[in-house]
Protein backbone atom coordinates (compact mmCIF):
# COMPACT_ATOMS: atom_id res chain seq x y z
CA UNK A 1 0.00 0.00 0.00
CA UNK A 2 2.85 2.36 0.79
CA UNK A 3 4.30 1.78 -2.69
CA UNK A 4 0.95 2.70 -4.25
CA UNK A 5 0.80 5.95 -2.28
CA UNK A 6 4.21 6.97 -3.58
CA UNK A 7 3.05 6.28 -7.14
CA UNK A 8 -0.27 8.12 -6.93
CA UNK A 9 0.67 11.01 -9.22
CA UNK A 10 2.10 8.66 -11.85
CA UNK A 11 -0.97 6.38 -11.80
CA UNK A 12 -3.32 9.38 -12.08
CA UNK A 13 -1.35 10.59 -15.10
CA UNK A 14 -1.58 7.08 -16.56
CA UNK A 15 -5.36 7.02 -16.18
CA UNK A 16 -5.80 10.44 -17.82
CA UNK A 17 -3.41 9.51 -20.64
CA UNK A 18 -5.16 6.21 -21.36
CA UNK A 19 -8.61 7.83 -21.43
CA UNK A 20 -7.39 10.12 -24.20
CA UNK A 21 -5.62 7.22 -25.91
CA UNK A 22 -8.74 5.04 -25.76
CA UNK A 23 -10.78 7.84 -27.33
CA UNK A 24 -8.40 8.42 -30.22
CA UNK A 25 -8.04 4.72 -31.07
CA UNK A 26 -11.76 4.53 -31.84
CA UNK A 27 -12.27 8.10 -33.04
CA UNK A 28 -9.70 7.99 -35.82
CA UNK A 29 -11.22 5.05 -37.77
CA UNK A 30 -14.66 6.64 -37.32
CA UNK A 31 -13.47 9.99 -38.64
CA UNK A 32 -11.64 8.34 -41.55
CA UNK A 33 -14.80 6.47 -42.53
CA UNK A 34 -16.88 9.64 -42.18
CA UNK A 35 -14.66 11.63 -44.56
CA UNK A 36 -14.89 8.86 -47.15
CA UNK A 37 -11.59 7.01 -46.82
CA UNK A 38 -11.68 3.43 -48.12
CA UNK A 39 -11.41 0.59 -45.63
CA UNK A 40 -8.06 -0.34 -47.18
CA UNK A 41 -6.69 3.16 -46.49
CA UNK A 42 -8.04 3.04 -42.92
CA UNK A 43 -6.31 -0.31 -42.46
CA UNK A 44 -3.01 1.04 -43.80
CA UNK A 45 -3.20 4.03 -41.45
CA UNK A 46 -3.73 1.64 -38.54
CA UNK A 47 -0.71 -0.36 -39.69
CA UNK A 48 1.32 2.85 -39.63
CA UNK A 49 0.29 3.35 -36.00
CA UNK A 50 1.56 -0.09 -34.97
CA UNK A 51 4.76 0.31 -37.00
CA UNK A 52 5.30 3.61 -35.21
CA UNK A 53 4.89 1.76 -31.92
CA UNK A 54 7.67 -0.66 -32.92
CA UNK A 55 9.91 2.16 -34.12
CA UNK A 56 9.30 4.17 -30.96
CA UNK A 57 10.40 1.27 -28.76
CA UNK A 58 13.78 1.30 -30.52
CA UNK A 59 14.44 5.05 -30.66
CA UNK A 60 12.69 6.86 -27.82
CA UNK A 61 14.56 5.22 -24.87
CA UNK A 62 17.68 7.04 -26.14
CA UNK A 63 15.83 10.36 -26.03
CA UNK A 64 14.66 9.67 -22.47
CA UNK A 65 18.25 8.89 -21.48
CA UNK A 66 19.32 12.35 -22.70
CA UNK A 67 16.60 14.61 -21.33
CA UNK A 68 15.03 12.63 -18.47
CA UNK A 69 11.60 11.22 -17.70
CA UNK A 70 9.62 14.31 -16.74
CA UNK A 71 10.74 16.40 -19.71
CA UNK A 72 10.21 13.42 -22.02
CA UNK A 73 6.69 12.85 -20.70
CA UNK A 74 5.75 16.50 -21.22
CA UNK A 75 7.29 16.73 -24.70
CA UNK A 76 5.85 13.43 -25.94
CA UNK A 77 2.39 14.31 -24.64
CA UNK A 78 2.56 17.70 -26.38
CA UNK A 79 3.43 15.95 -29.66
CA UNK A 80 0.57 13.48 -29.14
CA UNK A 81 -1.93 16.30 -28.57
CA UNK A 82 -0.69 18.17 -31.65
CA UNK A 83 -0.93 15.05 -33.82
CA UNK A 84 -4.50 14.26 -32.72
CA UNK A 85 -5.67 17.83 -33.34
CA UNK A 86 -3.95 17.81 -36.74
CA UNK A 87 -5.71 14.55 -37.63
CA UNK A 88 -9.01 16.23 -36.79
CA UNK A 89 -8.26 19.06 -39.22
CA UNK A 90 -6.75 17.04 -42.10
CA UNK A 91 -8.44 14.48 -44.33
CA UNK A 92 -5.68 13.58 -46.81
CA UNK A 93 -4.32 10.05 -46.56
CA UNK A 94 -0.57 10.91 -46.74
CA UNK A 95 -0.94 13.19 -43.73
CA UNK A 96 -2.85 10.49 -41.88
CA UNK A 97 -0.15 7.88 -42.53
CA UNK A 98 2.56 10.16 -41.17
CA UNK A 99 0.58 11.36 -38.16
CA UNK A 100 -0.61 7.89 -37.18
CA UNK A 101 2.96 6.61 -37.34
CA UNK A 102 3.92 9.52 -35.09
CA UNK A 103 1.16 8.79 -32.55
CA UNK A 104 2.28 5.15 -32.38
CA UNK A 105 5.88 6.11 -31.68
CA UNK A 106 4.90 8.73 -29.12
CA UNK A 107 2.49 6.51 -27.16
CA UNK A 108 5.19 3.84 -26.94
CA UNK A 109 7.52 6.47 -25.53
CA UNK A 110 4.93 7.52 -22.96
CA UNK A 111 4.43 3.89 -21.90
CA UNK A 112 8.22 3.61 -21.58
CA UNK A 113 8.41 6.60 -19.25
CA UNK A 114 5.57 5.31 -17.07
CA UNK A 115 6.73 1.71 -16.82
CA UNK A 116 10.40 2.44 -16.16
CA UNK A 117 9.30 4.83 -13.42
CA UNK A 118 7.01 2.20 -11.89
CA UNK A 119 9.82 -0.35 -12.03
CA UNK A 120 12.27 1.89 -10.19
CA UNK A 121 9.74 2.63 -7.44
CA UNK A 122 8.89 -1.01 -6.70
CA UNK A 123 10.68 -4.12 -5.47
CA UNK A 124 10.17 -7.88 -5.66
CA UNK A 125 7.62 -7.88 -2.82
CA UNK A 126 5.14 -5.45 -4.41
CA UNK A 127 5.94 -5.55 -8.13
CA UNK A 128 3.15 -8.01 -8.96
CA UNK A 129 0.56 -5.92 -7.09
CA UNK A 130 1.62 -2.74 -8.88
CA UNK A 131 1.58 -4.50 -12.29
CA UNK A 132 -1.95 -5.81 -11.65
CA UNK A 133 -3.19 -2.33 -10.71
CA UNK A 134 -1.43 -0.80 -13.72
CA UNK A 135 -3.07 -3.33 -16.06
CA UNK A 136 -6.46 -2.66 -14.42
CA UNK A 137 -6.02 1.10 -14.93
CA UNK A 138 -5.18 0.52 -18.62
CA UNK A 139 -8.31 -1.53 -19.27
CA UNK A 140 -10.70 0.68 -17.27
CA UNK A 141 -9.34 3.92 -18.73
CA UNK A 142 -9.60 2.60 -22.29
CA UNK A 143 -13.23 1.62 -21.60
CA UNK A 144 -14.01 5.05 -20.09
CA UNK A 145 -12.56 6.63 -23.21
CA UNK A 146 -15.08 4.72 -25.34
CA UNK A 147 -17.99 6.12 -23.33
CA UNK A 148 -16.72 9.70 -23.58
CA UNK A 149 -16.67 9.55 -27.39
CA UNK A 150 -20.46 9.97 -27.22
CA UNK A 151 -20.04 13.59 -26.14
CA UNK A 152 -20.35 14.68 -29.78
CA UNK A 153 -20.58 13.44 -33.38
CA UNK A 154 -17.46 11.78 -34.79
CA UNK A 155 -17.41 14.32 -37.65
CA UNK A 156 -17.19 17.24 -35.19
CA UNK A 157 -14.18 18.56 -33.30
CA UNK A 158 -15.77 18.03 -29.87
CA UNK A 159 -14.58 14.45 -29.08
CA UNK A 160 -11.11 15.21 -30.46
CA UNK A 161 -10.86 18.29 -28.27
CA UNK A 162 -11.94 16.30 -25.21
CA UNK A 163 -9.32 13.63 -25.95
CA UNK A 164 -6.69 16.38 -26.22
CA UNK A 165 -7.82 17.82 -22.88
CA UNK A 166 -7.34 14.49 -21.11
CA UNK A 167 -3.90 14.11 -22.66
CA UNK A 168 -2.95 17.62 -21.56
CA UNK A 169 -4.19 17.00 -18.01
CA UNK A 170 -1.98 13.90 -17.85
CA UNK A 171 1.07 16.19 -17.76
CA UNK A 172 -0.04 17.92 -14.55
CA UNK A 173 0.41 15.17 -11.89
CA UNK A 174 3.80 14.12 -13.29
CA UNK A 175 4.93 17.69 -13.83
CA UNK A 176 4.14 18.66 -10.23
CA UNK A 177 5.70 15.63 -8.56
CA UNK A 178 8.55 16.41 -6.17
CA UNK A 179 9.94 12.88 -6.23
CA UNK A 180 13.14 11.97 -7.97
CA UNK A 181 12.79 10.33 -11.34
CA UNK A 182 14.50 7.05 -12.24
CA UNK A 183 17.73 6.46 -14.06
CA UNK A 184 17.59 6.29 -17.87
CA UNK A 185 16.03 3.18 -19.41
CA UNK A 186 18.00 0.47 -21.15
CA UNK A 187 17.84 0.03 -24.90
CA UNK A 188 15.29 -2.44 -26.26
CA UNK A 189 16.69 -5.91 -26.98
CA UNK A 190 14.57 -8.42 -28.86
CA UNK A 191 15.06 -11.89 -30.34
CA UNK A 192 12.22 -13.54 -32.23
CA UNK A 193 14.41 -16.58 -32.82
CA UNK A 194 14.85 -17.07 -29.09
CA UNK A 195 11.09 -16.84 -28.55
CA UNK A 196 10.44 -19.43 -31.28
CA UNK A 197 13.07 -21.79 -29.89
CA UNK A 198 11.69 -21.54 -26.35
CA UNK A 199 8.02 -21.97 -27.26
CA UNK A 200 6.45 -22.36 -30.69
CA UNK A 201 3.06 -22.26 -28.97
CA UNK A 202 3.77 -18.84 -27.45
CA UNK A 203 5.08 -17.59 -30.81
CA UNK A 204 1.90 -18.67 -32.64
CA UNK A 205 -0.42 -17.38 -29.89
CA UNK A 206 1.28 -13.99 -29.86
CA UNK A 207 1.05 -13.67 -33.64
CA UNK A 208 -2.64 -14.60 -33.60
CA UNK A 209 -3.31 -12.07 -30.84
CA UNK A 210 -1.71 -9.32 -32.92
CA UNK A 211 -3.57 -10.29 -36.09
CA UNK A 212 -7.02 -10.66 -34.53
CA UNK A 213 -7.04 -8.14 -31.66
CA UNK A 214 -5.04 -5.60 -33.68
CA UNK A 215 -7.66 -5.84 -36.43
CA UNK A 216 -10.41 -5.33 -33.87
CA UNK A 217 -8.80 -2.09 -32.69
CA UNK A 218 -8.01 -0.93 -36.22
CA UNK A 219 -11.26 -1.76 -38.04
CA UNK A 220 -13.79 -2.79 -35.39
CA UNK A 221 -15.19 0.74 -35.16
CA UNK A 222 -15.64 0.83 -38.94
CA UNK A 223 -17.50 -2.50 -38.81
CA UNK A 224 -19.76 -1.24 -36.00
CA UNK A 225 -20.45 2.02 -37.82
CA UNK A 226 -21.62 0.15 -40.95
CA UNK A 227 -24.29 -1.73 -39.01
CA UNK A 228 -25.03 0.74 -36.21
CA UNK A 229 -27.35 3.70 -36.06
CA UNK A 230 -25.29 6.11 -33.93
CA UNK A 231 -21.87 6.72 -32.39
CA UNK A 232 -23.17 5.17 -29.17
CA UNK A 233 -23.59 1.85 -31.02
CA UNK A 234 -19.90 1.95 -31.96
CA UNK A 235 -18.72 2.75 -28.44
CA UNK A 236 -20.91 -0.01 -26.96
CA UNK A 237 -19.46 -2.43 -29.49
CA UNK A 238 -15.83 -1.63 -28.57
CA UNK A 239 -16.59 -1.48 -24.84
CA UNK A 240 -18.24 -4.92 -24.93
CA UNK A 241 -15.07 -6.41 -26.42
CA UNK A 242 -12.84 -4.72 -23.83
CA UNK A 243 -15.10 -5.85 -20.98
CA UNK A 244 -15.01 -9.46 -22.15
CA UNK A 245 -11.22 -9.45 -22.30
CA UNK A 246 -10.84 -7.75 -18.92
CA UNK A 247 -13.31 -9.98 -17.05
CA UNK A 248 -12.09 -13.29 -18.47
CA UNK A 249 -8.34 -12.68 -18.28
CA UNK A 250 -7.98 -13.65 -14.62
CA UNK A 251 -10.24 -16.76 -14.67
CA UNK A 252 -8.49 -18.06 -17.80
CA UNK A 253 -5.12 -17.30 -16.25
CA UNK A 254 -6.12 -19.10 -13.04
CA UNK A 255 -7.13 -22.17 -15.05
CA UNK A 256 -3.92 -22.10 -17.09
CA UNK A 257 -1.86 -22.29 -13.89
CA UNK A 258 -3.44 -25.67 -13.18
CA UNK A 259 -3.41 -27.44 -16.55
CA UNK A 260 -1.18 -27.48 -19.62
CA UNK A 261 -1.38 -23.96 -21.06
CA UNK A 262 -1.32 -25.39 -24.58
CA UNK A 263 -4.70 -27.03 -23.97
CA UNK A 264 -6.10 -23.75 -22.66
CA UNK A 265 -4.85 -21.92 -25.76
CA UNK A 266 -6.26 -24.70 -27.97
CA UNK A 267 -9.71 -24.30 -26.41
CA UNK A 268 -9.44 -20.51 -26.69
CA UNK A 269 -8.64 -20.89 -30.39
CA UNK A 270 -11.76 -23.00 -30.96
CA UNK A 271 -13.88 -20.62 -28.87
CA UNK A 272 -12.49 -17.58 -30.72
CA UNK A 273 -13.41 -19.23 -34.03
CA UNK A 274 -17.01 -19.66 -32.85
CA UNK A 275 -17.17 -16.18 -31.29
CA UNK A 276 -15.83 -14.48 -34.43
CA UNK A 277 -18.38 -16.27 -36.59
CA UNK A 278 -21.11 -15.34 -34.10
CA UNK A 279 -20.23 -11.64 -34.37
CA UNK A 280 -20.45 -11.82 -38.17
CA UNK A 281 -23.74 -13.73 -38.11
CA UNK A 282 -25.50 -11.77 -35.36
CA UNK A 283 -25.43 -8.34 -37.04
CA UNK A 284 -28.74 -6.62 -36.30
CA UNK A 285 -29.65 -9.23 -33.69
CA UNK A 286 -30.34 -8.45 -30.03
CA UNK A 287 -27.52 -10.83 -28.99
CA UNK A 288 -24.93 -9.04 -31.12
CA UNK A 289 -23.21 -7.30 -28.17
CA UNK A 290 -23.11 -10.59 -26.27
CA UNK A 291 -21.27 -12.14 -29.22
CA UNK A 292 -18.79 -9.24 -29.18
CA UNK A 293 -18.33 -9.71 -25.41
CA UNK A 294 -17.34 -13.36 -25.93
CA UNK A 295 -15.14 -12.40 -28.85
CA UNK A 296 -13.17 -10.18 -26.47
CA UNK A 297 -13.24 -12.87 -23.78
CA UNK A 298 -11.69 -15.48 -26.10
CA UNK A 299 -9.18 -13.35 -28.05
CA UNK A 300 -7.85 -10.64 -25.73
CA UNK A 301 -6.49 -13.00 -23.03
CA UNK A 302 -4.35 -14.78 -25.67
CA UNK A 303 -1.59 -12.18 -25.36
CA UNK A 304 -1.21 -12.65 -21.59
CA UNK A 305 -1.51 -16.43 -21.90
CA UNK A 306 1.12 -16.57 -24.65
CA UNK A 307 3.43 -14.46 -22.50
CA UNK A 308 2.88 -16.85 -19.59
CA UNK A 309 3.63 -19.83 -21.85
CA UNK A 310 6.86 -18.19 -22.99
CA UNK A 311 7.82 -17.53 -19.35
CA UNK A 312 7.26 -21.21 -18.48
CA UNK A 313 9.76 -22.25 -21.16
CA UNK A 314 12.48 -19.68 -20.49
CA UNK A 315 14.79 -18.79 -17.63
CA UNK A 316 14.18 -15.84 -15.33
CA UNK A 317 17.16 -14.02 -16.82
CA UNK A 318 15.67 -14.35 -20.33
CA UNK A 319 12.21 -13.09 -19.42
CA UNK A 320 12.67 -9.42 -20.32
CA UNK A 321 14.15 -10.31 -23.72
CA UNK A 322 11.48 -12.96 -24.34
CA UNK A 323 8.70 -10.60 -23.22
CA UNK A 324 9.97 -7.87 -25.53
CA UNK A 325 9.87 -10.35 -28.43
CA UNK A 326 6.26 -11.21 -27.50
CA UNK A 327 5.30 -7.53 -27.48
CA UNK A 328 7.06 -6.71 -30.76
CA UNK A 329 5.65 -9.78 -32.55
CA UNK A 330 2.17 -8.81 -31.36
CA UNK A 331 2.68 -5.28 -32.72
CA UNK A 332 3.97 -6.56 -36.07
CA UNK A 333 0.94 -8.84 -36.36
CA UNK A 334 -1.33 -5.90 -35.57
CA UNK A 335 0.46 -3.85 -38.24
CA UNK A 336 0.13 -6.45 -41.00
CA UNK A 337 -3.47 -7.64 -40.61
CA UNK A 338 -5.42 -4.39 -41.21
CA UNK A 339 -3.86 -3.91 -44.65
CA UNK A 340 -5.25 -7.21 -45.96
CA UNK A 341 -8.50 -7.19 -43.99
CA UNK A 342 -9.28 -3.60 -44.97
CA UNK A 343 -9.08 -4.64 -48.62
CA UNK A 344 -11.32 -7.65 -47.98
CA UNK A 345 -13.88 -5.35 -46.36
CA UNK A 346 -13.78 -3.14 -49.47
CA UNK A 347 -14.15 -6.10 -51.84
CA UNK A 348 -16.92 -7.92 -49.96
CA UNK A 349 -18.50 -6.34 -46.88
CA UNK A 350 -17.60 -5.39 -43.31
CA UNK A 351 -18.33 -8.89 -41.95
CA UNK A 352 -15.15 -10.05 -43.74
CA UNK A 353 -13.31 -8.66 -40.71
CA UNK A 354 -14.76 -11.28 -38.35
CA UNK A 355 -14.91 -14.09 -40.87
CA UNK A 356 -11.18 -13.59 -41.33
CA UNK A 357 -10.70 -13.69 -37.54
CA UNK A 358 -12.65 -16.96 -37.47
CA UNK A 359 -10.40 -18.49 -40.13
CA UNK A 360 -7.20 -17.33 -38.39
CA UNK A 361 -8.39 -18.61 -35.01
CA UNK A 362 -9.37 -21.96 -36.54
CA UNK A 363 -5.93 -22.36 -38.16
CA UNK A 364 -4.34 -21.55 -34.82
CA UNK A 365 -6.45 -24.20 -33.07
CA UNK A 366 -5.37 -26.81 -35.65
CA UNK A 367 -1.72 -25.84 -35.15
CA UNK A 368 -2.09 -26.06 -31.36
CA UNK A 369 -3.74 -29.46 -31.72
CA UNK A 370 -0.59 -30.66 -33.49
CA UNK A 371 1.67 -29.00 -30.93
CA UNK A 372 0.04 -30.82 -28.03
CA UNK A 373 1.49 -34.07 -29.43
CA UNK A 374 5.04 -32.78 -28.94
CA UNK A 375 6.17 -34.13 -25.57
CA UNK A 376 9.26 -31.88 -25.56
CA UNK A 377 7.02 -28.82 -25.14
CA UNK A 378 5.22 -30.13 -22.05
CA UNK A 379 5.60 -28.06 -18.87
CA UNK A 380 4.03 -29.64 -15.79
CA UNK A 381 1.46 -27.49 -14.00
CA UNK A 382 3.60 -27.64 -10.86
CA UNK A 383 6.42 -25.97 -12.80
CA UNK A 384 4.31 -23.14 -14.23
CA UNK A 385 5.38 -19.60 -13.50
CA UNK A 386 2.30 -18.01 -11.86
CA UNK A 387 0.09 -16.19 -14.36
CA UNK A 388 0.14 -12.39 -14.27
CA UNK A 389 -2.30 -10.08 -16.02
CA UNK A 390 -0.84 -8.40 -19.09
CA UNK A 391 -1.98 -6.17 -21.92
CA UNK A 392 -0.25 -5.32 -25.21
CA UNK A 393 -0.74 -1.61 -24.42
CA UNK A 394 2.71 -1.47 -22.81
CA UNK A 395 6.30 -0.74 -23.79
CA UNK A 396 9.22 -3.18 -23.50
CA UNK A 397 10.23 -1.56 -20.20
CA UNK A 398 7.05 -3.01 -18.68
CA UNK A 399 8.65 -6.46 -18.53
CA UNK A 400 11.19 -5.27 -15.98
CA UNK A 401 8.18 -4.56 -13.76
CA UNK A 402 6.75 -8.06 -14.23
CA UNK A 403 7.38 -10.32 -11.17
CA UNK A 404 8.27 -13.19 -13.52
CA UNK A 405 11.46 -11.37 -14.48
CA UNK A 406 14.72 -11.39 -12.51
CA UNK A 407 14.57 -9.75 -9.11
CA UNK A 408 16.33 -6.45 -8.69
CA UNK A 409 17.14 -4.34 -5.73
CA UNK A 410 15.56 -0.94 -5.47
CA UNK A 411 17.51 1.30 -7.81
CA UNK A 412 19.15 4.43 -6.56
CA UNK A 413 17.18 7.29 -8.03
CA UNK A 414 18.85 10.32 -9.49
CA UNK A 415 17.65 13.73 -10.59
CA UNK A 416 16.91 13.93 -14.26
CA UNK A 417 19.31 15.89 -16.40
CA UNK A 418 21.59 16.83 -13.50
CA UNK A 419 21.40 19.72 -11.06
CA UNK A 420 19.02 21.96 -12.98
CA UNK A 421 17.41 24.51 -10.61
CA UNK A 422 14.34 24.63 -12.84
CA UNK A 423 13.51 20.98 -12.03
CA UNK A 424 11.48 20.63 -8.86
CA UNK A 425 12.68 17.12 -8.19
CA UNK A 426 16.31 18.27 -8.07
CA UNK A 427 15.44 20.51 -5.14
CA UNK A 428 14.28 17.48 -3.19
CA UNK A 429 17.68 15.73 -3.28
CA UNK A 430 18.87 14.68 0.21
CA UNK A 431 21.36 17.19 1.66
CA UNK A 432 23.92 14.50 2.45
CA UNK A 433 24.21 13.69 -1.26
CA UNK A 434 25.07 17.27 -2.17
CA UNK A 435 28.62 17.92 -3.23
CA UNK A 436 30.83 19.83 -0.77
CA UNK A 437 31.51 23.48 -1.60
CA UNK A 438 34.09 23.79 -4.34
CA UNK A 439 35.23 26.56 -6.57
CA UNK A 440 32.71 27.47 -9.19
CA UNK A 441 33.03 25.33 -12.29
CA UNK A 442 31.86 26.11 -15.77
CA UNK A 443 28.20 25.36 -16.31
CA UNK A 444 27.58 22.13 -18.09
CA UNK A 445 24.84 20.95 -20.35
CA UNK A 446 22.32 18.23 -19.55
CA UNK A 447 23.69 16.16 -22.40
CA UNK A 448 27.04 16.07 -20.57
CA UNK A 449 25.31 14.36 -17.67
CA UNK A 450 23.76 11.59 -19.74
CA UNK A 451 24.49 8.06 -18.64
CA UNK A 452 27.39 6.47 -20.45
CA UNK A 453 26.52 4.01 -23.16
CA UNK A 454 26.22 0.37 -22.29
CA UNK A 455 29.72 -1.15 -22.18
CA UNK A 456 30.54 -3.75 -24.75
CA UNK A 457 32.90 -6.66 -24.82
CA UNK A 458 35.66 -6.87 -27.38
CA UNK A 459 33.42 -9.01 -29.59
CA UNK A 460 30.74 -6.31 -29.56
CA UNK A 461 28.30 -8.14 -27.26
CA UNK A 462 26.54 -6.40 -24.40
CA UNK A 463 28.27 -7.10 -21.10
CA UNK A 464 26.04 -5.05 -18.81
CA UNK A 465 23.41 -6.86 -16.72
CA UNK A 466 19.83 -6.76 -18.07
CA UNK A 467 17.45 -4.16 -16.72
CA UNK A 468 15.77 -6.49 -14.26
CA UNK A 469 18.85 -8.34 -13.00
Large-scale geometry: globular
Count every beta strand, where a strand is a DSSP E run of 2 or more residues. 0
- The CATH architecture can be named as Up-down Bundle
Q: Rg, please?
A: 22 Å
Structural class: mainly alpha
Per the CATH scheme, the topology name is Growth Hormone, Chain: A
Poorly predicted runs: 409-435, 437-469
* Oligomerization: single chain
CATH class value = Mainly Alpha
CATH superfamily, please? MFS general substrate transporter like domains
Tally of helical runs? 18
Task: Spell out the helices and strands N to C.
Answer: HHHHHHHHHHHHHHHHHH
Main pleated-sheet profile: none
The helicity comes to: 55-70%
Mean pLDDT: 79
Give the number of domains: 1
Distance from first to last alpha carbon: 24 Å
Quote the beta fraction: under 5%
List descriptors.
469 residues; 18 helices
How would you explain this protein's 3D organization?
By secondary structure, the protein is mainly alpha-helical. It has one domain: Growth Hormone, Chain: A (Up-down Bundle), CATH 1.20.1250.20. Helices cover 67% and strands 0% of the residues. The longest helix is centred in the first third of the chain and has 29 residues. It is globular, with a radius of gyration of 22 Å. 54% of the residues are buried.
Amino acid sequence: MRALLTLTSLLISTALLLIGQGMQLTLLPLRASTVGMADFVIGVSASCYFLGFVGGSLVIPRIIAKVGHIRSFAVLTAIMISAILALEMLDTWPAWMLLRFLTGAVICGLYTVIESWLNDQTNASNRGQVLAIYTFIILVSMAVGQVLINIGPADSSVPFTLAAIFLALAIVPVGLTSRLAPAPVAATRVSFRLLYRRSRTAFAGTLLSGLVVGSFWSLGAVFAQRYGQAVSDVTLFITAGIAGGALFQYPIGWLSDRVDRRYVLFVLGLAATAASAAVALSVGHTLHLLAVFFFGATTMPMYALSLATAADNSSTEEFVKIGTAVLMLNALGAASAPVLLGQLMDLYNATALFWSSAVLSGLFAIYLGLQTRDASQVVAAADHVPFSAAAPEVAPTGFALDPRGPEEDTCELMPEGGPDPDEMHAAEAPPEEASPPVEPAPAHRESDLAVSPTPEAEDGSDVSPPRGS
